[in-house]
From TrEMBL:
Domain HTH lacI-type: 4-60
Name of the protein this chain belongs to: Transcriptional regulator, LacI family
Single annotated GO MF: DNA-binding transcription factor activity
Stretches assigned to coiled coil: none
Origin: domain of life: Bacteria
SMART domains per UniProt: HTH_LACI
Keywords recorded for this protein, A-Z: DNA-binding, Transcription, Transcription regulation
A Pfam short name: LacI
Thylakoid is among the record's keywords: no
Amino acid sequence: MKKVSLADVARAAGVGKATASRALSASPHADVRAETREHVRRVAERLGYRPSRTAQALRTGRHHTLGLVVPLESWAWWAPVLQGATAEANRLGYQLLIHPLNAQLGLAGTLEELSHLSLDGLVIVTPETLEASDMPPASGARPTVLIDDVLAAPPCVAVRSDSRSGGAQVARHLLARGRRRPLVIAPAGEAAFIDERIAGFREGLAEAGVTLDDAAILVSDEAFDQPRPDASRLAQRLLAQAPFDAVFALTDYLAASTLGALRHAGYRVPGDVSVVGFDDERIARVVDPALTTVRQPMDELGVRSSP
């Protein structure tokens, strides 16, 4: 079957080839009326016309292709981000080239590899470890967006949720249920989201005159990919902090571990202790009892990161 050309569309629509080209452009042209644009697009769809990416690139200098760098981690929290970014890129006429982060090369090496590809921009999903020095300079020729809540001062445009506000919401939720002796369980390491969620939680507690001592913040060294969390070890750490009536786990994975540890220690949830997580990941929907959590709009982060 012969491939439908732009000339075929123009002939069937009764317009010139230049007008058809402008009507089918991703961005509206002021010299093409809206009704003409819609008419040409309907004709193109009926004929099954597909524009030549190569011809467009030669004409505009743009390839309408974005690179999305994702970390190869066992805990694929970024899957909804990918879905949102893909849907928005397609809506805007872009293709998304998904590129896994090369663990041996690191982020800087992976970006060097991608520098040889014809991409109009890059979207980078935060890997487990990220240093500002790994990122390309903000003045680089290729626009770069970072979906990140690790770096306190990202070197380029970054899309992230408001972790501080989320932490404050958790505090108000617990206070409304009469909980005034909370603990916090945080992941190990340094990351902006850890500091922001704790800071917001403290601010929310302070509104009711409740303070959170540093001793009430437990740092967990549990890895996301370990087959089974050590409930007894975490239970012992929790018991050493008694009395407490609430636990704010800074991630849903830690919240799930906390539920098991509290059960191991003889606590009833939510009867004796309230537990709140953060992120609203898939694990929040399968634990027992059901987990109260702050939802991060992962799909929306992907949408906002696209051009």
